[in-house]
Predict the 3D structure of the following.
Amino acid sequence: MTSLPTNPASPGTPPHEPEPAPTPQNPSQSAPPRLPGLHLMGDLYGCQCAPEQLLDADFLSSHCQKLVEQAGLHALQTLFHRFEPEGGVTGMVVLAESHLSLHTWPEENYVTLDVYVCNHSADNRDKAQQLFAELMATFQPADPHLWRIDRA
């Protein structure tokens, strides 16, 4: 059995326990506000879209920005990168509401997709679901593996 490390200031004594957190005066102020969000993820196998779509960072960037806008979300920054010579694309759209990310493996007809929104100023769940559905329609996976996580 491994022993606990000792306190270097006082050899042979165990390290001090952390100080307990102070008790708040007003318990309602201690809990962070509940800001539920929605996280949609997909492993999209057997994508049947045009193969060049999985290679074209410019297309994916402009297409994702268009779909973000159509869903009523707000893009803050976008970065899409193609791995040369024959690699896929990694892309990210930072949203005021959170993010959209995707990664393509054209040699496998495979895409990973991630849409996350928080609901700080509005309920954005329907917008996230619309965006995710439009991206699924873009890639046309034969075998999508999907996850939905309600956050917070």
In short: Residues 57-71 form the longest helix (15 residues). The chain has a mean pLDDT of 85.
